[in-house]
Amino acid sequence: MATLATLSSISANGENAMVTRENELPGHPLVEAALNAIANWVTNYRNAIGLKDEFGMCGPDEVMRMAKDIGVTPSQLRELVRKGPDSAKLLRGLLAALHVDPKIIADMDPLVMREMQWLCITCNNKKRCQHELAKGTVTEHFHEYCPNAISIDELLNQKGQLSSH
User: Fold this and answer.
1) 20 belongs to a structural domain
2) Average pLDDT over residues 116-145
3) Is 32 part of any domain?
4) Is 16 helix (H, G, I), strand (E, B) or coil?
5) Which of 5, 42, 107, 158 gives 20 to 30 Å between its CA and that of 116?
6) Is residue 53 situated within a structural domain?
7) What range defines the domain where residue 94 resides?
8) 62 found inside a domain
């Protein structure tokens, strides 16, 4: 982390001159990583508490209506709330790596996209997926762990057939 201090001084001929000096503070990657992890945990905790409280204010009829509106069961809706708003973001990352636009899938077949999101939300391989996305190797390895692999292959086959016509 660097800070920039600006000093004003008088030059030999009496004019004001701007002198700058950069103060380098040594970086501490371990401390920064720990602070980032704590900040992420606090953010996730706040999101979870807020979502839980909002959901808890709803009666059973309202929960049923919301679940029906988005095409899930009340128990699935509770799980969605528990997992948080970004629980299917890894699917978006995988599809982007494969050059597939999730919006096109959602427009063509909302049920398929909803099922793929549900599988991603409930997947137990999130750490592996995050790792593969970060390494840039997700397109080579997603078949080994992703519950959406078969659906994605089918979409890629359809995409190939459409582009060859």
Assistant:
1) no
2) 94
3) no
4) strand
5) 42
6) no
7) 87-165
8) no
Q: Give CA–CA dist 90/121, Å, rounded.
A: 9
CA–CA dist 68, 73 (Å, integer): 7
Name the one residue in this structure whose structure tokens are 């086959």: 157
Instruction: Name the token pair of 63.
Output: 């929960």
Question: Which tokens sit at 137?
Answer: 């190797």
Is 150 within 8 Å of 134 (Cβ atoms)? Answer: no
Rounded Cα–Cα distance for residues 78 and 72 (Å) = 10
Q: Which tokens go with 20?
A: 């700058």
For residues 104, 105, 106, 112, the Cα torsion angle rounded to the nearest 10 degrees is: 170
Name the pLDDT band for 93 (thresholds 50, 70, 90).
very high
Q: Is residue 145 within 8 Å of residue 128, measured between CB atoms?
A: yes
Whole-model pTM: value is 0.57
Q: Do residues 140 and 127 make contact, with C-beta atoms less than 8 angstroms apart?
A: no
